[in-house]
């Protein structure tokens, strides 16, 4: 059994009966979120890249739960400087989390930490997505990305049960490109993420799901805080 909770933006929590992992925790900065960082109970935090709307709550959640933070090596190193227990990995690698396995896949985006006071941007490794085997299911979290042709290869090589795809546009692919990505990944269920948090990424997620249905694909919109079980 796999339990999935969507916390808004790109924040997704995947859990089994007694273990869970959290992807890209961003709660305090999201007015649509209904969950606070102190409400999260998790064993592992996965980070797709270093932008603030994906790592803001990684530190408090990891410290409160004594959770391991998994990210590409540069971002993992940065998080280790904050006193966190980290596991650095790189593109194409797979890590065994005991209750889950996570493979890092490519994403086309940027990744850096903006140091406002210094007027400097710190390189934080490549952006990524994850393919996670957990609770007898295979889950793909695409991270922040544009459309790229190798999505078809990834879909051909993996039997994906659930795919989380950004649809917001402006900073990531929009609904039209995400529809093509959904076809290539060919997941049994596609759930849109990374939309409506800011004015620039407002989208009609229900219409996106209708478009998926027209392609013979199943989609579902989850509200922040909503959970499903598979």
From TrEMBL:
Keywords: Hydrolase. It catalyses: 3',5'-cyclic UMP + H2O = UMP + H(+); 3',5'-cyclic CMP + H2O = CMP + H(+). It comes from the Bacteria. Belongs to the UPF0173 family. This is UPF0173 metal-dependent hydrolase H7T88_18585. Signal peptide: none annotated. Residues 8-194 form the Metallo-beta-lactamase domain. It holds the Pfam family Lactamase_B_3. The keyword Hydrolase applies. The lineage of its organism: Bacteria, Bacillati, Bacillota, Bacilli, Bacillales. It comes from Paenibacillus cucumis. Counteracts the endogenous Pycsar antiviral defense system. Phosphodiesterase that enables metal-dependent hydrolysis of host cyclic nucleotide Pycsar defense signals such as cCMP and cUMP. Gene3D superfamilies: Ribonuclease Z/Hydroxyacylglutathione hydrolase-like. GO terms for molecular function: hydrolase activity.
């Amino acid at each position: 059994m796999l339990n999935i909770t969507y916390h808004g933006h790109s924040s997704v929590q995947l859990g089994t009966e007694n273990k869970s992992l959290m992807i890209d925790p961003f709660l305090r900065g999201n007015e649509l979120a209904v969950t606070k960082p102190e409400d999260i109970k998790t064993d592992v935090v996965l980070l797709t890249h270093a932008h603030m709307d994906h790592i803001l709550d990684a530190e408090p959640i990891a410290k409160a739960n004594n959770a391991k933070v998994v990210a590409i090596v540069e971002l993992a190193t940065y998080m280790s400087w904050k006193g966190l227990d980290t596991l650095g990995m790189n593109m194409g690698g797979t890590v065994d989390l005991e209750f889950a396995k996570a493979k890092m896949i490519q994403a086309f985006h940027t990744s850096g930490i903006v140091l406002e006071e210094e007027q400097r941007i710190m390189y934080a490794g490549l952006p990524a997505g994850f393919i996670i085997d957990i609770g007898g299911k295979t889950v793909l979290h695409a991270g922040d990305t544009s459309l790229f042709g190798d999505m078809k290869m990834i879909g051909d090589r993996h039997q994906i049960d659930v795919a989380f795809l950004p649809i917001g546009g402006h900073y990531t692919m929009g609904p039209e490109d995400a529809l093509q990505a959904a076809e290539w990944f060919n997941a049994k269920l596609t759930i849109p993420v990374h939309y409506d948090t800011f004015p620039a990424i407002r989208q009609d997620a229900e219409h996106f799901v209708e478009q998926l249905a027209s392609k013979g694909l199943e989609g579902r919109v989850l509200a922040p805080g909503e959970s499903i079980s598979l």
